[in-house]
């Protein structure tokens, strides 16, 4: 799950604000949004910000059980920034267990690392209370690297067959992906395959490491927030989940989407009783990821090949995971 990174600059510092924006901070807490906006586009938090302190964002110092209960209660209204004078004492585990809106106010990278690792899933985000550009860069890097992991399963290919003509979607991101990375795409909301980015050389076209030729328009894509979106609905500015063969995940911003009519293949696979199908373009440049973490073209796939994917439980309602009886096939 993507973690939020905010920087508290109520004591305005131009160098710190510039560093925060250039380091990819999600928001700046400020008493002067105009000064921040002159430096670049970024979400502001304050009395007159995009998020309002006291309405959308609350602050509380954890001193005892009473203040802990207050933090949980406030998290039902908005995000809660929690601070403490002693990070070895704060019952952060209790807060994280009870709410997904807890943001830890920290002074340095060491405190941020501790908060991000609480109960494995960590806090929702980090607020860095430092104007040191080196600290801002270090914590930003840490937050990005702690965006999460995804458990992958091995699927056995059962069949690969022509599926006629149809509309397929290329997702062009604002990031350069590496070998082994791609998007998590599914014909249903319960089973997905890791579709490899176009990072590899081939005789027909130059590599396009920013692109995933993700599949037919109806398929689900896993987004950065772990919700799903139909490929046909993804647009510029959306954030998609990028996973590698080890299950490590990051996010990428979508720069462009291309929908074009192309010949298609139906791929059917199975993993421990879970069946899966996925419709992809019939072309050498479209690849999945094998069990040995190497890419394999869909035109070379054959029954018995083992590829990586993801099994999810339950159904989806407007992209959200829900617990209900649902059959997709």
Automatic annotation (TrEMBL):
What is the name attached to this protein's record?
3-dehydroquinate synthase
Origin organism of this chain?
Answer: Methanomicrobium antiquum
Q: Which UniProt keywords apply?
A: Amino-acid biosynthesis, Aromatic amino acid biosynthesis, NAD, Oxidoreductase
Function, in words: Catalyzes the oxidative deamination and cyclization of 2-amino-3,7-dideoxy-D-threo-hept-6-ulosonic acid (ADH) to yield 3-dehydroquinate (DHQ), which is fed into the canonical shikimic pathway of aromatic amino acid biosynthesis.
**Residue span(s) of domain 3-dehydroquinate synthase C-terminal:** 155-329
| Annotated gene | aroB'
Q: What Pfam families does this protein's entry cite? A: DHQS (PF01959), DHQS_2nd (PF26558)
Reaction(s) catalysed (UniProt annotation): 2-amino-2,3,7-trideoxy-D-lyxo-hept-6-ulosonate + NAD(+) + H2O = 3-dehydroquinate + NH4(+) + NADH + H(+)
Q: Which stretches make up the 3-dehydroquinate synthase N-terminal domain?
A: 2-143
Recall the GO molecular function terms of this protein's record. 3-dehydroquinate synthase activity; dehydroquinate synthase activity; NAD binding
Q: Which top EC class is named for this enzyme in its record? A: oxidoreductase
- PANTHER family referenced in this protein's UniProt entry, alphabetically: 3-DEHYDROQUINATE SYNTHASE, PTHR33563
């Amino acid at each position: 799950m993507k973690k939020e990174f905010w920087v508290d600059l109520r004591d305005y510092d131009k160098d710190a604000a510039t560093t925060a924006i250039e380091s990819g901070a999600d928001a700046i807490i400020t008493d002067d949004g105009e000064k921040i906006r002159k430096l670049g586009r970024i979400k502001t938090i304050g009395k007159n910000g995009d998020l309002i302190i006291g309405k959308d964002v609350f602050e509380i110092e954890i001193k005892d059980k009473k203040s802990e209960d207050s933090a949980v209660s406030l998290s039902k209204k908005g995000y809660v920034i929690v601070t403490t004078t002693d990070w070895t004492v704060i019952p952060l585990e209790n807060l994280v267990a009870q709410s997904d809106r807890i943001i830890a106010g920290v002074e340095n990278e060491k405190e941020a690392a501790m908060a991000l690792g609480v109960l494995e899933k960590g806090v929702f985000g980090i607020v860095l209370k430092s104007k040191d550009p080196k600290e801002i860069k270090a914590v930003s890097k840490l937050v990005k690297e702690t965006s999460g992991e995804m458990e992958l399963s091995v699927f056995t290919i059962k069949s690969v067959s022509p599926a006629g003509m149809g509309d397929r979607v290329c997702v062009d991101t604002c990031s350069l992906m590496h070998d082994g990375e791609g998007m998590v795409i599914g014909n249903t909301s319960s089973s997905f395959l890791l579709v490899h980015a176009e990072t590899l050389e081939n005789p027909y076209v130059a590599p396009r490491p920013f692109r995933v030729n993700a599949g037919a328009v109806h398929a689900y894509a896993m987004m950065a927030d772990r919700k799903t979106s139909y490929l046909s609905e993804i647009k510029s500015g959306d954030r998609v989940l990028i996973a590698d063969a080890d299950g490590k995940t990051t996010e990428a911003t979508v720069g462009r989407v291309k929908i074009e009519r192309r010949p298609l293949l139906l791929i059917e696979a199975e993993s421990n009783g879970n069946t899966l199908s996925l419709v992809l373009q019939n072309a050498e440049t479209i690849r999945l990821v094998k069990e040995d973490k190497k890419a394999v073209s869909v035109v070379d796939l054959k029954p018995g090949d083992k590829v990586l994917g993801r099994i999810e439980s339950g159904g989806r309602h407007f992209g959200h995971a829900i617990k209900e009886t649902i059959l997709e096939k």
